[in-house]
Design a protein that fits this description.
The chain is an alpha/beta fold. It has helices at residues 52-55, 58-65, 73-81, 146-152, 170-180, 200-209; strands at 2-5, 11-15, 18-22, 44-46, 68-72, 87-90, 93-97, 100-106, 123-129, 132-136, 157-161, 184-188, 213-215, 222-224.
Length: 225
């Protein structure tokens, strides 16, 4: 499985011959200025919630790739109104797709669509791909709901927000690893805006002191999971 980071909470997973893009926010992120969104390929686009820093490039990418967009009901409705045709709405729990099961899980945050319309509840996802089980938390505070995932899955990686202010910070993400019983974390949602800037060296060191791994790929970097 390959993971490519595009900044903020946008990343691409490649597994089982398919490409899964999450929360596309690139062109409005100065840190991602070297990423050409016209070059991005995707078979699926998954959206955790409707805030602009997770959905700003969705319409362009969906139209240029004809990717299958997956989002919660209220966000999916907004996406369809933008002219995107290949959209499936979901809600919490398991949904079946041709790539397998997708579990949509709770996130403690807020949600609205770019036009200010109701965005429903924010969410995270658990996917089983390429022989690995991956949890993407979306934007969330620390929550005891995460303990349930340790009962349901043996997670290989957790993709967690670490920037604080709007979501978990590094310390809360470390606690989340204990709830999730997951040793390997990929950090997202940090350094894009002043309130979520962090000391990345110290963040990695904190995880190491707890015998955990925090991966922070550079924007545009691809790593093997």
């Amino acid at each position: 499985m390959k993971y490519t980071y595009y900044g903020q909470s946008c990343f691409l997973l490649e597994a089982d011959g398919k490409k899964f893009l999450f929360d596309p926010f690139i062109s409005h992120n100065p840190l991602a200025k070297d990423i050409a969104i016209k070059s991005i390929e995707a078979d699926y686009v998954l959206v955790s919630h409707g805030h602009a820093d997770h959905i700003a490039d969705l319409v362009q990418i969906a139209n240029q790739t004809n990717a299958h967009v997956i989002a919660l009901v209220e966000v999916a409705d907004w996406i369809r109104k933008q002219g995107v045709k290949n959209v499936t709405d979901i809600n919490f729990g398991k949904s079946k797709f041709d790539f397998g099961a997708l579990r949509t899980v709770w996130a403690v945050h807020s949600s609205s669509n770019p036009d200010g319309s109701y965005g429903g509840n924010p969410a995270g996802f658990v996917l089983e791909l390429g022989g690995k089980t991956i949890y993407f938390a979306g934007d969330t505070a620390l929550t005891l709901e995460m303990k349930l995932l340790a009962d349901l899955y043996n997670l290989d990686y957790a993709i967690l927000p670490i920037g604080g202010h709007y979501t978990m910070d590094v310390d809360d993400a470390l606690i989340a690893t204990k709830y999730l019983e997951c040793e390997k974390v990929i950090g997202v949602h940090y350094n894009t805006f002043p309130p979520i800037q962090i000391d990345t060296t110290e963040a990695v060191a904190k995880f190491k002191r707890e015998n955990k791994t925090l991966l922070l790929p550079a924007i545009g970097e691809t790593i093997e999971l």
